[in-house]
Amino acid sequence: MKIEKVEFARGIRGTDPILNDTKKHFVFAGRSNVGKSSVINALLSRKDMARSSATPGKTLEINLFLVNDKFYFSDLPGYGFAKVSNKDKEQLVKMILWYLLESGAPIELVFVIVDASVGPTERDMEMIRALIDSNTPYVVIGNKIDKVNKSGRAHYEKELAKKFAPAVFIPFSAEKKIGIPDVLRVLEEKL
């Protein structure tokens, strides 16, 4: 798959007419500071399409990007240690779950991004359980795989793949451009 065109479509926090568009949504979910924006930018071959920040939890809305005029990339707010009040954290979780489970958006697939260098957190596993419980298809992207010692990386990747089975696990590095063709192949199969 070749990504030729991408444009920021809209940021939403609730019901919006864009959700009635029948174009498929490919969703990117992950904890704060896992590199969601970097993964999206690497896949789009753009530097700053999805905004990344040194401050975790900066994304407070669902950002939709129209890709090739055919489908959307959906960048969810990070879950975890967002630097917002507990009330706002609760609102973010509600918004994420509403979008994934109740909004009616034509969600084709969720990419759950985990930090491969530290493994899945309890928040990551909660997200995966919610997707399993709702029969929402997902793939796990292990970002920052380049931070894992090269000599033990193959064994570690197998262990992570087992942990997430039967879901597909894709080792990835936005920085080193590892795994991009694998994710694009999954996207192409779903279109």
Question: How would you describe this protein?
Answer:
With 191 residues, this protein is of the alpha/beta class. It has a single domain (6-190), classed as Rossmann fold (3-Layer(aba) Sandwich). The chain contains five helices and seven strands, in the order E-E-H-E-E-H-E-H-E-H-E-H. The chain has helices at 36-44, 86-101, 122-133, 150-164, 180-190, and strands at 6-12, 24-30, 62-67, 71-75, 107-115, 138-143, 168-171. It has a seven-stranded mixed sheet, with helices on both faces. Strand 3 (62-67) and strand 4 form a beta hairpin. The relative contact order is 0.17. The mean pLDDT is 90.
The N- to C-terminal Cα distance equals 10 Å
Say which CATH homologous superfamily is assigned.
P-loop containing nucleotide triphosphate hydrolases
Portion of residues in helices? 25-40%
Task: Indicate the CATH topology.
Answer: Rossmann fold
Radius of gyration using CA atoms only: 16 Å
* Overall number of structural domains: 1
How many strand segments?
7
**Strands in their spatial order, largest beta sheet:** 1-3-4-2-5-6-7
